[in-house]
Each structure stands twice: as C-alpha cells, then as structure tokens.
Amino acid sequence: MKNKTVLKNGFLIFLGIALFFLAMDLLGLASKNYLRLLNAFIVLYGINKTIKDNYLKGKTDHFKNFFSGFVTGVLGVFLGIIGLIFFIYLKGGEVYLNTLSDTFFFVGKVSIIQYCGVLFFEGVASSLIGTFVLMQLHNEVPLSHKY
Hints:
Elements: H1 4-26, H2 33-36, H3 39-56, H4 62-90, H5 94-100, H6 112-140
Helix pairs in contact: 1-3, 1-4, 3-4, 3-6, 4-6
C-alpha cells in the first residue's frame, strides 16, 4: 500500500481502540455496553484525519479520498479485532468471552470467531457510513475555507 497516511491513521485507530478498551477493562467498565459506543468516535477521528490530510496534500478527488478514508477505518477495525482475539485468549478464552457476549448483539453461547466476525462486519459497516458522512461534511466546506 502506497499511502502512508492510511497506514498511520489505521494504526492510530487501533491504538485508540486498544487503549480505550484496556482502560475500560482496568476500571471494571467492560460490561457497560453504552460505553462501547464511544469507540465509534475513535474510528471517525482516524478516518477524518486521513481525509483532512489528503485535502491538505492537494488530493481533491472525491472517490480517492472516500476510498482512503474507508480503508483507514477498515484497517483500524481489522487490527482492533486481531488485538481483541489475543486479548480474549489472554484473559481466559471462552470463559472471558461469556462475560463480554452478554449484550443485545449476542444471545446464547457464541465462539470467539463468531463474536469477532460480527464485530468486524459491524466495524466495516460503521466505517463505510462514517466515511460517507465525513466526505459529505468535507464537501460542504468551500475550498477557500478549508483548514
């Protein structure tokens, strides 16, 4: 991949999500589902940073900026899921997963792969929607007033 901005911001998303969930786990808040929604802001921040950096570099092609933002979000989510898999196994595997999976998304017993697969597809969908919304916001600002 040629775009270092995408890689850098995708890794930034991963770090943000990892630190956020580690802090929630350390504080005993991992079971609070409503706090998990805050990770969307971390993903949106990384996507927005990529789009903004592209505009600052003079890249104004709408589709290329959209694609860069989307790939940034998917990369961050993918790395986050890989980190989650390792974290679940470090914390006890299926036993720890049972404490996480007691949410409105999952009913009954699920495997680690099922749990992370659903979270990955939810993250990809969120990245797509978030990128679309952010691109609309960036297109609303006249070029003479950007950044």
